[in-house]
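Appendix B, example 12.
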Amino acid sequence: MTTWHYIAVADLSPGETMWSIVFPDFAGVTSAASAFADVPQQARDALATAVEDMIAEGEDLPPPIEEGRQAEPDRDEFHNPRYIVVPVEVPDNLTRINVSIDRSLLKRIDDAAARCGMTRSGFLAEGARKLLRASSDQGEVPKG
């Protein structure tokens, strides 16, 4: 895993009690926090979810701040913005693949992944890791 960093903007509008959190590089990704002390964790959770979803869908991630380019927030949108650098773990060497699988098995996988709070890709990868660990422990791949 590699850690990338993105900018989040937290803002507390007049008359509001919740801090709003947006990511200039991720259109539509938002979060909120009741206290400023909670903003960093809420931002990390929102960004991690967005990145996982984009990876699962095969979408390219925006360049992180390490690459020297990021979207500039429209300062007129905010009352009193606070800028936060948010870390997110990004898998190394992601490769998109196409697989064929029985439709009913795919539905079971999707249902189980949702119950675990995982993406389909994450669920399948974790299952493969477990089988690979078991095969190295037993000297062969378990047959199912």
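The CA atoms of residues 44 and 111 lie 25 Å apart. The longest strand covers residues 2-11.
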